[in-house]
Amino acid sequence: MTRDLHIMPPEAPLAMPAQDFSAGFRDAQVPDAKRPSAGFWRALAFSPAMAATLGLLWVMSDWFGAEGINLVEAILLALISFNFFWISFTVCTVLLGMVSLSRQEKPIRETRPEPLRVALLMPVYNEVPWNVLGNARSMLEDLQARGGQHHYAMFILSDTRDPEIAAQEQASVEALRTTLDPGLELYYRRREQNTDRKVGNIADWVSRWGADWDAMLVLDADSLMTGRAILRLTDSLARDSGAGLIQSYPQLIGAQSVFARMQQFANGVYGIAFAEGLARWCGQEGNYWGHNAIIRTSAFANCAGLPKLRAFNGQEKLIMSHDFVEAGLMRRAGWGVRFLPRIRGSYEETPPTLIDHALRDRRWCQGNLQHLKLLGSAGFRSVSRFHMFHGAVGYLMSPLWFALLVMWALIGQGEDASVLHYFSPDNPLFPQWPEMSETRHVLIILVMYAMLLAPKVLGVLALPLSGVRYADFGGGSKFLTSFLAEVILSILYAPILMVQQMIAVFRTTLGVQKGWSPQARDGGSYSLRTLILCHTLETVSGIALSAGILSGLVSVWLAPIAISLALAIPLSALSGVSAGAARRMVGMKEDFHEPAITRSARRHRNELKRVIEGKGIMTPAE
User: Fold this and answer.
1) Can you tell me the mean pLDDT for 117-127?
2) In a domain, 597, yes or no
3) 476-510 and 258-269 helices cross at what angle (nearest 10)?
4) Does the record carry Glycosyltransferase as a key word (predicted)?
5) Among 125, 365, 439, 523, which is disulfide-ready with 356 (CB 3.0 to 4.6 Å)?
6) pLDDT of residue 558
7) Quick one: CA torsion of 393, 571, 569, 364, rounded to 10 degrees?
8) Enclosing domain of residue 117
9) For the segment 309-336, what is each residue's pLDDT rounded down to a tens digit?
């Protein structure tokens, strides 16, 4: 039996009371200084999206208006308008980011920040220990190499329940501590019970050790940050006495499979302008994504303690997606919540396969839909409510898109071919749908497809504004090939992800979801039986749509969706391929310019793995 290993500094308790959602709260510690407003940027983001949606609604209402708009037509218009607003809003955010990136802002002479004591918190739950500790060592050594006036320490906060992994975890910590420079602090604590999961893990640290630390930088088990990024976050918090939380922009790394490389390319190319636009209209009401963010410890303790939510059956339930709520609570109390996307060197990993991505989405779906119950909570800022609503809508959009798809399929190609016949004296019980083959209708359909593609094209055009060159991806032709491959793959995978998210929404609504489970970070290939079980609904839907198109009952405009759904099983198998031409179809900047921190982390991971497996010895830092 393995003994429990606890290597922690003396306790420094800090009270962390649970907040009351029925009453507002203002933290007396918040400075009285006026915070800059983002009203102008918000108007630029929201107004064009609203105007475009109202314009589309007016045009489409005119189609249906000849015979009056009945209930079914009204539902169709509502679905189209709701979906179109979120597409337009994404486009507006990217455009806003392009404007922001193109502005030549005068450099600000910054004062020397006050030194802070910062705890790097890495909660883990049944993770591969040498991967976690390899990343931790890389961050500590990079911080040491950078120097500076701030003081840092790494805390590995384990909730691991698997005894074998726990033993490896503790052995890894002991091995690493024998090698680290004496000036580097690495602590380890494993809880006997993982009460309240990650929320409880962080709260336990805050309430027992938090008083000794000015700030905490919360990491995930797969997080990796350069010393420069950590220092810039710390300096930003030190200089802004009214900031309670500053979120970095985590970029994806380590992708090997087709699906992961597609995600990493999109994150590194399209995400930059979107993140810049998001930061502009968020202002002081930013969001928190649960990791790679620095938080003022006392502010978090005073304002972000989470109570349980009472379910319809009277049971108390943990708030699952805690990060959005914690950001809202801190802003409610008066603290600024900022997003700084220009701080580079903040990294995380992404699920390697379509199935792994869908499993993670099911977990996130539970928490994001839970936010709908908190929209009426007292004291939340309107933008904080919008963040929570937006997170829920991200999942509710999938059943809405599916409903729109079904209705569109039922509209068909004409009076004789349509599954739903039109209103006529001979058939008065069914709606009179417009003829979708008219030029004006085709143009609207093309506009919808173009709007879905626009954020990607704009992201590509904005890339040079961010200081990234197309040549960094292996040359212009290689970049273009990768871009086209990513677009094609995203078109193929989007309908499958839509159905998977719809399933997640229904599972959550019906209460058949389980609790959190650790993320399968390595992924891998899945058996044919597993692929069939996961993608039966998509395959059946795709075959039915394809049959409808071939028989003339369903619009040919749905062919891309039908093909994707019908091929869900082989496409899912392709997503996990990590070798050969399939892997190289999407090139990434990191293939040609790998960050030094990732090379360091990989070296430390491999070394520690060999030590734990008895095949090597630890070497001291250079």
Assistant:
1) 97
2) no
3) 110
4) yes
5) 523
6) 82
7) -30
8) 113-226
9) 887 666 788 998 999 999 999 999 999 9
Nearest of 598, 580, 600, 579 to residue 589 by alpha carbon: 598
The residue written with tokens 């649970």 in the block is 18
| CA-angle at 425, arms to 423 and 427, nearest 5° | 50
- Cα distance between residue 29 and residue 289, in whole Å: 24
Q: How far apart are CA 450 and CA 60, in angstroms?
A: 18
DSSP conformational letter for 157: E
Specify if 169 maps to a domain: yes
Query: Which is it for strands 243-248 and 215-218: parallel, antiparallel or unpaired?
Result: unpaired
One-letter identity of residue 253:
I
> 99-134 burial, b if ≥16 CB within 10 A, otherwise e?
bbbeeeeeeeeeeebeebebbbbbbbbbbbbbbbbb
Q: 362-384: per-residue pLDDT in tens?
A: 989 989 999 999 999 999 999 99
CATH number at residue 137: 3.90.550.10
Q: By C-alpha distance, which of 85, 91, 93 is closest to 51?
A: 85
Reading the block at residue 378, the tokens are 């007292």
Order of strands, edge to edge, in the sheet holding 346-348? Answer: 224-225, 346-348, 251-252
* Number of helices and strands in the chain (H, E): 21, 12
Q: CA-CA distance, 248 to 229, in Å (whole number)?
A: 8
- Write the single-letter amino acid at 92: C
Instruction: For residues 584-613, give the mean pLDDT.
Output: 91
Q: Is 438 exposed, middle or buried (0-12, 13-18, 19+ CB in 10 A)?
A: exposed
Q: 496 phi and psi, to 5 degrees? A: -65, -45
Can you give the pTM of this predicted structure?
0.91
Report the b/e string of 323-348 with b at 16+ CB within 10 A.
Answer: bbbbbbbbbbbbbbbbbbbebbbbbb
Computed on alpha carbons and rounded to an integer, the radius of gyration of the chain in Å comes to 26
What number of other Cβ atoms are within 10 A of residue 182's Cβ? 5
DSSP designation for 376: T
Q: What is the distance of C-alpha 185 from the center of its chain? A: 30
Split into its structural domains, the chain has a count of 1
Provide the residue count of the chain: 622
- Residue 411: its H or E element: helix 382-411
Alpha helix positions (H), 418-521 = 439-462, 476-510
Q: How far is CA 223 from the centre of its chain?
A: 14
CA angle at 330 for the pair 396 and 190, rounded to the nearest 5°: 85
Q: Which amino acid is at 350?
A: T
